[in-house]
Amino acid sequence: MTASQDPIVEALQQYSTCDVSDALCKLKHPHGGFLPGLTLWSPQRQEGATKIVGPAYTVKYALLDDPEPKHPSHYIDSIPEGAVVFISSPPTPNAVYGGLMSTRALASKAVGSIIDGRFRDLQEHRDLNYPVFARDVGTAPPYGAVKVVGVNVPVQLQGPELEALAITTINPGDYLIGDLNGVVLLPRELAETVIPMMAKQSDADAKMAEAIRGGMSFTEASSQFRA
Length: 227
Fold this sequence. Notes:
Number of strands: 10
Oligomer: single chain
Structural class: alpha/beta
CATH class: Alpha Beta
Organism: Aspergillus pseudoustus
InterPro entries: RraA/RraA-like, RraA/RraA-like_sf
Number of helices: 6
CATH superfamily: Ribonuclease E inhibitor RraA/RraA-like
Protein name: Ribonuclease E inhibitor RraA/Dimethylmenaquinone methyltransferase
Strand content: 15-25%
Low-confidence stretches: none
Radius of gyration: 19 Å
Helix content: 25-40%
Largest sheet: 8 strands, mixed
CATH architecture: 3-Layer(bba) Sandwich
C-alpha cells in the first residue's frame, strides 16, 4: 500500500492542522503535536490553500565534526510515493535543501518537504508548485558545514523554541500535516484514535458556527454543542 492509498492519509485530508492539534490536546499529547517555527514558503508565502498530509520520510543532518559517519547514498533517490520529506538540520547558516531536491522529490511523487532549518532556491520550488515548509531561507549550500548521517531514522526537532518544550521526536512513518497554520506531527500509534475524535469535534464546531451566525452567544453554543 502506498501512502496515497493509506486510509489514515485520506481521512486526514478533510481536517486542518488545528483540528489535529485540538484532538491531540484532548489526549494530553504535548502541545497538540505542533512543531513551532515551520511555516509555508512555497508555492506561496503563507497564502493560498496549500496543504500536505503524509507519512514522514526523515533525513538527519549533522555537523561535519560529528562522529556519526556520512550516509553512503543520497536520500533524495529513495523517497516513497506520497511521503512528506522531513529534513532535520543542526543550527547553521547554510541551507540544507535546494531546488534540485524538490525537482527529484516531485518526480518521486512526494507531497511536500519540511525543512527544520534553512533552504535555498526559493523561486525554483515555487516554479515547480511544490510545497515547502521551513524555518528560513539562505544561499550557501550544505557542503563544508553539514553532512547526512541518517535516512528514515528518528530525528529531533531543532529550533530556539525547544527551550520551553519537551524534546519532540519525528519517527519515520509518523503523519505530518502542514497548512497555513503551521505543521503538526501526529504519531502513527495515535492516528486511529484521533480521527473519530476530529469527526465529532468538526461536526460540533459546524453546528456552533451556524448557531452563532443565527444570534446565539458563543458561551451558549459551546455549552450546547461541545458539552
